[in-house]
Design a protein that fits this description.
The protein is mainly alpha-helical and 268 residues long. The protein folds into two domains: 1-190, no CATH class; 206-268, no CATH class. It is built from nine helices and four strands. The strands form two sheets. A two-stranded parallel sheet has the order 1-2. A two-stranded parallel sheet has the order 3-4. Helix 2 packs antiparallel against helix 6. 10% of the residues are buried.
Length: 268
């Protein structure tokens, strides 16, 4: 016999699946598990870091220029990039301040001309500085949407990677540590909630007979979680004075009279 779930008494603790599964894994198995745990932790860190970046309210200049560099509008990146000069030479504005790397980008997006750097603009790119300011806004809105889409796609990929790593690790852990125990047990004891959490364990154990007590208070979907494709007999036990199932949504109850009747006992 084996008990699924973590709740137990001193007398039943030895029946827990975890207790019976200890010392089953060999050194190679633990080495593999630890390696996969490290991969999962690293993936989670990347996801957390990128989630923080994704949640920012604004798109920074670096984001925009990085996008432009590899987009179909890469010409704009070439135009907005100020050529590097020897350290002894600096570009100076009319006000006497040094020019930063975002100078051309800032002047263009504000509808201004390239100012003191007009001589760096090639004739073939001069038309960009004559584009109507309203067109500037539309272009930037398009770029921002594309950047957000790209970031969203990356975020989804990171989430999926974490999910895959977790599922693979969990599956391997179950297979190596728990399945050996479950395959040799004739009786499994658990609540319907635990049955839902340990669905893979039930599939391995393949119980052909499922016995559920206090069924009058259990929802139908909870009954289904305790069953597998191998279930041949389902035995429901209840007290004839037992209360009906408890639900938290009045709109799904018998009293609402919408014929949803989620809290109707299976024996009514």
């Amino acid at each position: 016999m084996v008990q699924l779930g973590s709740k137990s008494t001193p007398h039943t603790k030895e029946l827990e699946l975890f207790e019976q599964s200890q010392n089953i894994l060999d050194i190679d198995s633990w080495s593999f598990i630890n390696q996969k745990r490290d991969e999962l932790e690293e993936a989670i860190k990347k996801l957390q870091s990128y989630s923080t970046e994704y949640s920012r309210d604004s798109i920074f200049k670096d984001d925009m220029l990085e996008y432009l560099e590899f987009s179909k509008d890469s010409t704009f990146f070439d135009i907005f990039t100020i050529p590097e000069e020897p350290t002894s030479i600096q570009h100076i504005r009319r006000q006497g301040k040094s020019i930063g790397k975002y100078y051309l980008w800032n002047t263009w997006r504000h509808g201004q001309n390239p100012g003191t750097l007009h001589n760096l603009i090639s004739p073939q790119h001069a038309y960009i500085w004559t584009i109507a300011f309203s067109r500037h806004q539309k272009l930037m809105e398009t770029w921002q949407r594309n950047i957000l889409f790209k970031k969203s796609t990356k975020l989804v990929k990171l989430v999926r990677r974490c999910n895959i790593l977790f599922k693979n690790l969990n599956k391997y852990f179950y297979h190596k540590q728990h399945y050996t125990v479950l395959e040799n047990k004739q009786i499994m004891a658990c609540t319907t909630n635990t049955a839902a959490q340990y669905a893979p364990a039930l599939q391995v154990a393949k119980p052909d007979v499922v016995i559920i007590e206090e069924t009058g208070e259990i929802l139908e979907n909870h009954i289904l979680t305790a069953m597998t494709m191998d279930t041949q007999q389902l035995v429901l036990i209840r007290d004839h004075k037992q209360l009906c199932p408890k639900i938290n949504n009045y709109n799904l109850s018998i009293k609402k009279d919408d014929r949803l009747d989620l809290n109707r006992s299976l024996f009514e």
